[in-house]
Design goal:
Length: 419
């Protein structure tokens, strides 16, 4: 595995516990990208415009890099192009920040044409504001240590803009196709449920448990990049359940924009199933919930949310109750579950059922005939038959969407016995 050194500059008055959690998350990201972390370096100070951390700390970093033979330096703090250049000049190693690390992970997980385009768009959106600085550096003598600049020319910025526009057009075309597919699914009676939540909260495990699937599950961040959709029966209602990409704190706007078509799986859902790792400390859960809501909030004003407190089997009832009470304002319609052990999934399905788009419920009588029996078979496929009895006629207690109700009523009226 590649060897990496992690670096973080903390603001002097920042919360120490939050700083520790952020460094732990950076370490998990590095692991997800295939790095072995050989050292961590932290400095509390205000940002230095040339190096992010202080000059002396960069020189210390260079000695550690050489002594441990590290392949890469990864900063938690966002770095400017000039800061990357200055640090790499001193350390003689490639230097990246947290968001470039996330892009590395996304690039290795992208397997479909759409996800590959989204990763490329995010990379270009990241690079575009830095194009002028990159060109300025290229006009100097190129030196070892500042990697990945060799092919840039003065036309780079315009080339990036043109490529961004082409990718956006391709993604918009793909999204129109997906919008048509969503409309078709709705017309066929499927409700759309999307799994959402912080990365590594257990969404894919819950997806597998609910849909009886075996999508890859690993104890690392961003294992799901390409959304997966499967059908699910929720107390008689046909539901399409989609596993989506996880959120992360301080996700920059360019990354949200690049993955807009993937996030639309969440934004266009009838119900969002928000997954929380309830085994974590309350403040950690709160921070991750705030990051999730920040990404979703503007788009989900009218969408129902059900919250799954996952890994509840790892807590006592008292601990679980305390967490659910403390986080009540961020966790609408909460249900405590264990996705891995299948604990309380029936209760979760019942809660989902309560929040699916409402269907009408009627009683109707159909003729006891071959045509009537064919209509009954169709109604079982397209709606929820709560009760059925056979006598001189077929009496049905039916719940279904408007199109099915209207067709059933029209059939019943057409075949009604003359009074």
């Amino acid at each position: 595995m590649k060897r990496a050194i992690l670096v973080k500059r903390n603001d002097p008055r920042s919360d120490e516990h939050k700083n520790e959690l952020q460094m732990l998350e950076l370490k998990e990201l590095a692991y997800s990208a295939g790095y072995t972390v050989v050292a961590e370096l932290v400095q509390a100070r205000h940002p230095d415009s040339r190096y992010q951390v202080g000059r002396g700390k960069v020189e210390e970093l260079a000695r550690i890099v050489q002594g441990l033979n590290a392949d890469k330096v990864i900063f938690h703090n966002p770095l400017s192009t000039m800061q990357i250049y200055n640090i790499s000049e001193t350390c003689r190693r490639e230097v990246i920040d947290k968001f470039q690390l996330i892009l590395e992970i996304f690039a290795t997980r992208a397997t479909t044409p759409r996800s590959k385009l989204q990763v490329e768009l995010a990379r270009l959106e990241y690079e575009l504001p830095r194009a002028r600085t990159i060109i300025s550096i290229l006009k100097k003598e190129e030196r070892p240590g500042f990697m990945g600049l060799g092919g840039y020319e003065n036309s780079y910025a315009q080339d990036v803009k043109n490529r961004i526009n082409r990718i956006k057009n391709e993604l918009e075309s793909m999204e129109r196709d997906r919008d048509s597919l969503r409309s078709l699914r709705h017309s066929k009676g499927f409700s759309l449920v999307a799994l959402a939540g912080y990365t590594n909260a257990g969404k894919s495990t819950l997806f597998n448990s609910l849909a009886k699937e075996e999508v890859p599950v690993k104890d690392m961040m961003f294992t799901t990049l390409v959304p997966t959709t499967r059908s699910l029966d929720v107390e008689g209602r046909n539901v399409l359940l989609t596993d989506t990409v996880g959120f992360i704190e301080d996700l920059p706007h360019w990354m949200v924009d690049a993955f807009r078509s993937t996030l639309n799986e969440i934004f266009h859902a009838d119900v969002v199933l928000l997954v929380v790792d309830s085994s974590e400390p309350v403040e950690t859960i709160r921070r991750k919930l705030l990051a999730s809501h920040e990404t979703m909030w503007e788009q989900l004003q009218e969408v129902e949310i059900v919250t799954a407190f996952n890994k509840a089997d790892m807590l006592t009832q008292e601990e679980l109750s305390e967490r659910m009470l403390a986080l009540e304002y961020l966790t609408p319609n909460p249900v405590a579950i264990s996705a891995k052990k299948g604990f309380c999934l029936d209760i979760l399905k019942a809660e989902l059922r309560n929040h699916l788009p409402k269907w009408k419920r009627i009683h109707l009588s159909l003729p006891l005939s071959e045509e009537g029996m064919s209509m009954v078979s169709w109604l079982f496929r397209e709606g929820v038959v709560h009760n059925i009895s056979y006598g001189d006629s077929i009496d049905i207690d039916l719940e279904a969407r408007d199109a099915v109700i209207n067709k059933a009523l029209s059939f019943a009226k057409k075949h009604a016995s003359p009074s």
